[in-house]
Amino acid sequence: MNKVIDHSHVFTVQVQYNSDSNYIDNIKKIVEKYQGSMEQVQVKIEEGLVFENINIGIEDKEKQQGIEKAIAQLGGGDIVERFQEIMKLHEGGKVEVTLKHPIVTKDDLSKVYTPGVAKVCLEIARDEQKAYDLTIKKNTVAVVSDGTAVLGLGDIGPKAAMPVMEGKAALFKQFADIDAVPICLDTKDTEEIISIVKALAPTFGGINLEDISSPRCFEIEKRLRAELDIPVFHDDQHGTAIVVLAGLLNALKVCNKKINEVKIIVNGCGAAGISISKMLLEAGATNLIGVDREGAISSNIQYDKEHWNEFAKITNPNQENGLLSEVIKGADVFIGVSAPNILKVEDVQNMNKDAIVFAMANPTPEIDPALAAPHVRVMATGRSDYPNQINNVLCFPGIFKGALYAQASDINNEMKLAAAKAISSVITDEELSETYIIPDAFDTRVVERIKTAVAEAAVQSKIARKTN
């Protein structure tokens, strides 16, 4: 892999990466996958960043696009040209405020602002419910973070978290035409976050909590749901859980298995893993085992993490013990929200026939899909360059659109289950296959299907203010 030899097509990728990352090793694996070779030509090192030209040789030009796309998905670095393009896209932020009605005359000004606006204020003062009709509350969501668990970057602070929250706001607008406001808080104090969000709540029709570290995220969401009269939704937990359930419902159809009969392993017992598990139990799962670095979570063990003790009470009914490689034996389903390459080929071979594997660690899954493919019936990841991408963007625009439409006071379990079933229903029985269990993020049917199902569930569970 040191020299580019015996290949008819050679191209150069200029990359930048963190000097302490395994970025180059991952590029080597990608090039090997495409039966290529590579040569590194170091350019410079600046403040811990390495800049290199990588000459890549392959048999034909067709493989270049696949290699470039795979490199673009890697964490720890970036293609320089792509990096510059990304930076330009973010200049000045990605969202802006625009006017619904232009203000061009004094008459316009008197209606939009004083004195005309006073009449509107008095209407709302007499009946606060009219805020939904007469202000942005009807269609506006706050995207709130403290910057403590941003993507795979960890605690990078509120300013550095802002591009992600802006991106989330952009997705709300693009996919559901919901106006979302990114709000990054300069505090990690649980009580202070709760207090600030409660004080901001009158402006918004819903609160989307984002990238707040575990276990504080549990308490923050629980308290805000109890103390506010608008939906509060932690997407890292519930958005992931809803899309996983949607994909699993269809994967089980493909394999002709039932959710109440299969053995499910959920690897990674943080916010996402616990929420996924609860969602699957709500949908009818009976034999589900949560696994973390310490092994299977079991009620016969006392943990320092209280949320694990609570989790243990509702999972692992047969009290199985041991590490992942032990408890995965005989499992029908593996769901990973954990770390790269922790699932081995022999682990997959020890699963039941027609195994289902959702390896969702990003950017590198728990197992390389190419290694798992011969041994599983359905394979899903969190990546866009493989079939069956489990992506939160399938969920949060539609579930908020339905909740806002119904003017719901909460997003409850009934609404979450309705959202999951709505997503899975987009794929017809005729379309369903091993490589198509979940719709694409750009499928225009998804948001409207979720909106309708969620609004109906809100009405039926009696938390909707608007019932028609």
Which descriptors apply to this entry?
four-stranded antiparallel beta sheet; 468 residues; globular; 18 helices; alpha/beta
Structure commentary:
This protein is α/β, with parallel strands linked by helices and about 475 residues long. It has 18 helices and 14 strands. It has helices at about 25-35, 60-70, 80-90, 105-110, 115-125, 130-135, 160-175, 190-200, 215-225, 235-255, 270-280, 305-315, 325, 345-350, 370, 395-405, 415-425, 445-460, and strands spanning about 10-20, 35-45, 50-60, 75-80, 140-145, 180-185, 205-210, 230-235, 265, 285-290, 295, 335, 355-360, 380. The strands form 3 sheets. Strands 11-10-9-12-13-14 form a 6-stranded mixed beta sheet, covered by helices on one side. Strands 2-3-1-4 form a 4-stranded antiparallel beta sheet. It has a 4-stranded parallel beta sheet with strand order 6-5-7-8, with helices on both faces. α8 runs parallel beside α9, α16 (about 395-405) crosses α18 (about 445-460) and α17 (about 415-425) runs antiparallel to α18 (about 445-460). The longest helix has 21 residues, at about 235-255. The model has no long low-confidence stretch (mean pLDDT about 90). Pfam families: malic, Malic_M. Keywords: Metal-binding, Oxidoreductase. InterPro entries: Aminoacid_DH-like_N_sf, Malate_Decarboxylase, Malic_enzyme_CS, Malic_N_dom, Malic_N_dom_sf, Malic_NAD-bd, Malic_NAD-bd_bact_type, Malic_OxRdtase. This is Malate dehydrogenase (Oxaloacetate-decarboxylating). Its cofactor is Mg(2+); Mn(2+).
